[in-house]
Amino acid sequence: MLGISNFYLNLSRRFVSTGRNLVKIEQNEESKFMTRILMNNEKKRNSLGIDMIRQLQQAIDEIDLEKCRVLVIGSSCLKVFSAGHNLKELTSDKGFDSHQVIFDEFTKLCLKLRDLPCPTIAEVHGLAAAAGYQLAASCDLIIASNKASFSTPGVKFGVFCSTPGVALSRNVSPKISLKMLFTGDAISADEAYLHGIVSQVVNVDESSENLSKKVKEIASKIESNSKHVVALGKKCFYEQFERPNLNDAYKIACNAMVDNLKYEDTQLGLKAFASKSKPIWNHSDKKII
Amino acid sequence: MLGISNFYLNLSRRFVSTGRNLVKIEQNEESKFMTRILMNNEKKRNSLGIDMIRQLQQAIDEIDLEKCRVLVIGSSCLKVFSAGHNLKELTSDKGFDSHQVIFDEFTKLCLKLRDLPCPTIAEVHGLAAAAGYQLAASCDLIIASNKASFSTPGVKFGVFCSTPGVALSRNVSPKISLKMLFTGDAISADEAYLHGIVSQVVNVDESSENLSKKVKEIASKIESNSKHVVALGKKCFYEQFERPNLNDAYKIACNAMVDNLKYEDTQLGLKAFASKSKPIWNHSDKKII
Amino acid sequence: MLGISNFYLNLSRRFVSTGRNLVKIEQNEESKFMTRILMNNEKKRNSLGIDMIRQLQQAIDEIDLEKCRVLVIGSSCLKVFSAGHNLKELTSDKGFDSHQVIFDEFTKLCLKLRDLPCPTIAEVHGLAAAAGYQLAASCDLIIASNKASFSTPGVKFGVFCSTPGVALSRNVSPKISLKMLFTGDAISADEAYLHGIVSQVVNVDESSENLSKKVKEIASKIESNSKHVVALGKKCFYEQFERPNLNDAYKIACNAMVDNLKYEDTQLGLKAFASKSKPIWNHSDKKII
């Protein structure tokens, strides 16, 4: 905890306006284009109860998209990113209609992250289990500490991780997914990287600050690119990814390329490239024609 | 051979009722919920001739699904899991209609494994080649010894491994698949793990028993979960995996989650979790509503 | 440069008949069934301007498919495979219609490589960036030196690598793809192999000839197989790969298998296998029925 706290000592912090403060929003002053949403319920291991889900949705909806170029989803404690759904909400006495609401709302949250124009990074220091993994996997990148672990253990107490399995199976082969899903065994961050489940592993043996530093470094790289170009690219990526037909996928991507070239920022970038200077973006969606 | 034989010394064994005994069924007494089907034709390297295919189908059909919670597909010899189709059955004098039957029946066998309610594990000690690899890949997990190897060598004698390529391409990138398919070169178990072709590699340098021990250990973990919850999860996994559209996949999985929560066993599991005790399952498909 | 030059010292070389010589075609005398098309514009880092694209298309169209069994796409210089599109052609003053032509023609080139009956190998010694990576990924295999690197850096100067992203996302998990696409950072050949982006990495620390030697060795293996069997297998692979439904994919592949067995060459191969001799192919598409 201390490491991350110190690192963000000078951050202006505001809270989603609820009495519960399950979610903390950090607007980094150094990097004003990065928004960090931290799950802040260590006691309940950041369990994704309906309140946490709704507060995360709300926090995302409140992001100033004019300004924000990278969204980081993390945890305010080191031990756990999130342990998944709140199992107390899944008992039969709560009613199956309320279960449906929970899974529908959580799916909305996951798709909301995918559909955000800005790239999203899950910063995973500790355990990301079940829906906790699914939340991380719904971000574009996962940057994990070497102490992180990933699991889909629901089957052990009778709730198969079917929805986390959707995210898992889009990132790793069925042979790896199904071993995790059937046994509930966790895998280490290094194994997760080996299998393409995470984007990068950061060694935090010496200092717990390393992970946030690396995330900030990656975010800075992304922020230094033209905002609307990145948004166009992200949208195209997920659109073509759903097309098994290669020709269809290329049609979508070719249209995106041609559209991309119409941005004023893109033409600025090409001029900068030609003159070997650094592009100074407008970050506007203004098009030349 | 001896290692595995000793390890299963006390097993009750029965045979599929044919004169040929191409397939051996072992019902482990220690682990009464695990069924092992062993290909038992070392002389012909467990070639998947039509008789072997039919005996495997029959053996699977005869599984007591009331009891069985994990099916292991293995070989009664260490050197070879299976070398693939019986090439003698693929000559033109056998008639092309009979070729069609062979591939149709083998596809049925592969889909039968996928559609079984219980998880399936391929235990691969030696060579899994061509249709032999396809059979292994049609199991949910592949647990391989470090001495195992995997190949799709059909092209070398004029029969491109098109059907094994279907299984291969669902587990590993085209760049790796096509190198295997075009050259026929085998890859080691470690490489196979690196690429997500196998779920786990077990070091058997010291003892040939290690592989079966590890498979049994994984099977025990799976068996300790509620049978119908596992079946529901397995079915959902493969259903959503065929949906490239993420929203569609999540709809399928959300429905599975809500359905999952209706199992009596699931509610038992949630109560056990809340009281930090170990769930004692009914293994029934009884639902609360 | 010298290494590769020496290695191909005795090659007969001819050039695509244009005044610009952006593309060099090498017909290896030792291996008369392998055609090498080398991008030959070191000064412009083999940029894929419309002329280069058209010369590559033309070079492929001119391949003697009666003879050619493997096509290698490479570079005549060691430092760069290709740095991607010619950014000077993407400025607004060239007109957006001409941009559309560039992306359409480049897509045609990529699909042409996939649709060629013979296997294609990208031999990547240096940098493969943006459309340069896409070109390499459009070959069936990528064999890379340990000095190679791969990147999709377009976003840095305002042109998101949307079309290269199509190729990338078909070979590696979104978590890895999106990190490359959003940051523009290059990955090493070893990382690329780890993630399934390349088929094999060849250590060239001691000699720059190693890569071409290894490519030739792999090509020789492929050439020693029956040409039309390989073509049938390649076609089937990409066809079934576009089918998310496993049953559909197996239907396509079963039909391919049965069709495969009708080739005279296949029946020769099966006879050779039975008599433990090496098959001597006709390399014809003659069928028995």
Automatic annotation (TrEMBL), chains A, B, C:
Q: Which compartments does it reside in? A: Mitochondrion
The source's domain of life comes to: Eukaryota
Q: Which Pfam families does UniProt cross-reference here?
A: ECH_1 (PF00378)
Q: Which SUPFAM superfamilies match?
A: ClpP/crotonase
Q: Which GO terms describe its biological process?
A: fatty acid metabolic process
Q: Which N-terminal residues, if any, form the signal peptide?
A: none
Q: Does the keyword Ligase apply?
A: no
GO MF terms listed in the record are: hydro-lyase activity
What UniProt keywords are attached to this protein's entry? Fatty acid metabolism, Lipid metabolism, Mitochondrion, Transit peptide
Q: Which GO terms describe its cellular component?
A: mitochondrion
Biological function: May play a role in fatty acid biosynthesis and insulin sensitivity.
Q: What is this protein called?
A: Enoyl-CoA hydratase domain-containing protein 3, mitochondrial
Taxonomic placement? Eukaryota, Metazoa, Spiralia, Gnathifera, Rotifera
